[in-house]
Design a protein that fits this description.
Elements lengths: L5 E3 L17 E5 L2 E2 L9 E5 L2 E6 L1 H4 L8 E4 L4 E4 L1 E6 L1 H9 L1 E2 L6 H14 L6 E6 L12 H8 L4 E5 L5 E3 L1 H4 L19 H13 L3 H17 L2 E8 L6 H13 L4 E6 L6 H9 L4 E2 L33 H14 L2 E6 L2 H18 L1 H7 L2 E4 L5 H10 L2 E4 L1 H7 L5 H6 L1 H4 L5 H7 L3 E3 L10 H9 L10 H8 L1 H5 L17 E5 L3 E2 L21 E2 L9 E7 L2 E4 L1
Parallel strand pairs: 1-6, 2-6, 3-7, 8-13, 9-10, 10-11, 13-14, 15-16, 16-17, 17-18, 18-19
Antiparallel strand pairs: 2-4, 4-5, 7-20, 11-12, 20-23, 21-22, 23-24
Protein name: Amidohydrolase
InterPro entries: Amidohydro_3, Metal-dep_hydrolase_composite, Metal_Hydrolase, YtcJ-like
Pfam families: Amidohydro_3
């Protein structure tokens, strides 16, 4: 090697820009804990030209020390694969990070104060954008009225999405910008907008975001992801969610800016060759993500077999089984991954029936090989769990939903009643059946928070749905790669992409849901690599360094 060997600590060299391209260098990391199935007791790792070259013991690392460009002394830090967040809305995440986020508002009055302050701070914005209100957490138990929004904004246009992003409230000035809004389905004169009315208002609101403002938001979201040890995000875009310009702009930004990898999904139903060509031209890996079969529970738009406990209807169906079958058939024949957003039990059932119909046309093996995916998949029955396994459907799930809205007195119980609410998000049953899981946040619905996501899956509010920390961690790392058809990544073994994170963490343990798991599996002598203790109340690991393809993107 012609470059001089350097030495630095786990967070990286203070004199090196994290954006500097170091992907062609050979790096030895040593003196830590390397989480790898190749060697459960590994303390060192060599990265060469963006690929994991070797994993092993401290003693063996001496043989590499003189032949590398750089030695990173871990000082006991933990090295893991970088996380993959399998469901993100990047621009909306960035807008929430840099703008008006009502997630922390304790009541309606506090929310209105935040809106007023935001309006005063952004006098030049043609439309004010905000996110995150949740009236089920406020003592008033209602969202702001249009008159209250008009007063808080001084009569300016305001779009304010509910935490689940499936409904919103808007000021009069914004509604006046939307042609025909009064006649659209889902319009309510003084209540949250849903379905078609919501989509129309959202389109007008986001059309006001300038290219510079959009790029600023995207950079903020990608930076935050890197700071949290996230190496890859799955962007879930689509014509009813963002815009083609937003989607292609993000992919282009990610391709030229050091940061997490971005894998794009475009949620548009495929009915012919022109649709397939557009999906590919946009740079998407699949016609999937938030292709809506239904809405969300919090907004009473998830599609149910039986009425809501607190509303006399069964929600909203956007696609039926025939439409699902047509989409899956077209995508499978074209070699393109298909996928859907489905939350309610009727919506999940429609997906299963549609995919099964496609498999009867094309053959089960061909449909399974395509690895089609379902986002959220919250209200599953034993029959639909078995069908997911049979059809090879990946479940892209968000455990933080249960942490936020589960439990005996949570929003799920309010919407469905306690008995139905207890059936939601059955991760243990899904894993037992062989359903592939990929974990994500649906940010900004819930924040980017990978270790918090793993904790939420391991400490599910319904005990029988809990899975081990190891299983949840695998679903949040390797599971995300498998969801895009890559079985060779998301794990620290020779030949895998060098996507990893370095963590300041406490003692490493093998943490299981309950005492039914055999005791030998938690013994260090079993050879099972440990992970941080995620017991609720304990501090989560702190990211010191994130590397993507051998290139340091945070440190």
């Amino acid at each position: 090697m012609t470059d001089p060997t350097t030495s630095r600590g786990p967070a990286g060299d203070a004199h090196r820009d994290p954006g500097e391209d170091d992907s062609r260098r050979t790096v030895l990391l040593r003196g830590g804990e390397v989480h790898s199935p190749a060697d459960p007791f590994a303390t060192a790792m060599v990265v060469e030209h963006g690929t994991i070259a070797w994993v092993g013991s401290e003693g063996a690392a001496d043989g590499f020390a003189d032949g590398v460009d750089e030695v990173v002394h871990l000082d006991g830090a933990l090295v893991t694969p970088a996380f993959t967040d399998a469901h993100v809305h990047t621009t909306s995440t960035g807008l929430a990070l840099t703008g008006l986020d009502l997630g922390g508002a304790r009541d309606l009055a506090a929310a209105l104060e935040l809106i007023s302050a935001h309006a005063a701070a952004r006098p030049a914005d043609p439309v004010l954008l905000g996110h995150g209100w949740d009236a089920t957490r406020w003592p008033e138990r209602r969202p702001p009225t249009r008159a209250e929004l008009d007063r808080a904004t001084g009569g300016r246009p305001l779009y304010l999405s509910r935490v689940d992003v499936h409904s919103a409230v808007a000021s009069t000035a914004l509604l006046d910008l939307v042609p025909g809004i009064l006649d659209r389905p889902g319009f309510h004169p003084d209540g949250p907008l849903t379905t078609a009315a919501h989509h129309a208002v959202r389109a007008v609101a986001f059309a006001a975001v300038s290219p510079a403002q959009r790029a600023e938001a995207q950079r903020a979201a990608l930076t935050r992801a890197a700071e949290l040890g996230i190496g890859t995000i799955h962007e879930c875009g689509g014509p009813e969610i963002s815009s083609e310009e937003d989607f292609t702009g993000l992919l282009e930004l990610a391709s030229r800016t050091p940061g997490p990898r971005v894998v794009g999904y475009w949620a548009e139903a495929v009915t012919g060759a022109a649709d397939l060509a557009r999906v590919r031209e946009l740079g998407a890996v699949g016609a999937a993500g938030d292709l809506f079969v239904d809405g969300a529970l919090g907004s009473h738009t998830a599609c149910l077999h039986e009425p809501y406990a607190d509303a006399a209807h069964t929600g909203t169906a956007y696609l039926d089984a025939d439409a699902v079958a047509a989409h899956v058939t077209a995508c499978t024949e074209a070699g393109l991954q298909a996928g859907f957003h489905a939350i309610g039990d009727a919506a999940v059932d429609a997906v299963v029936r549609g995919v099964r119909e496609a498999s009867e046309r094309l053959g089960l093996a061909r449909v399974r090989a395509a690895r089609h995916r379902v986002e959220h998949a919250e209200m599953l029955t034993p029959e639909t769990v078995a069908a997911f396994a049979e059809l090879g459907l990946t479940a892209s799930v968000q455990p933080a939903f249960d942490a936020a809205w589960g439990g005996e007195d949570g929003m799920y119980a309010e919407r469905l009643g306690r008995d139905r609410a207890r059936t939601l998000n059955p991760y243990a049953a899904m894993l037992r059946a062989g359903v592939p899981l990929a974990l994500g946040s649906d940010s900004p619905v819930t924040p980017l928070d990978p270790w918090g996501t793993v904790r939420a899956a391991a400490f599910h509010r319904t005990p029988e749905h809990r899975i081990s920390v190891r299983a949840a961690f695998t679903a949040h790392t390797r599971g995300g790669w498998r969801a895009v058809g890559r079985d060779d990544a998301g794990v620290l073994v020779p030949g895998a992409p060098a996507d990893y994170a370095v963590w300041q963490a406490g003692d490493l343990v093998v943490q299981v849901p309950d005492t039914r798991v055999a005791n030998w599996s938690t013994d260090p002598r079993s050879g099972t690599p440990g992970l941080p203790d995620l017991t609720p109340g304990t501090p989560l690991p702190v990211c010191l360094r994130t590397v993507v393809g051998g290139r340091t993107v945070f440190g």
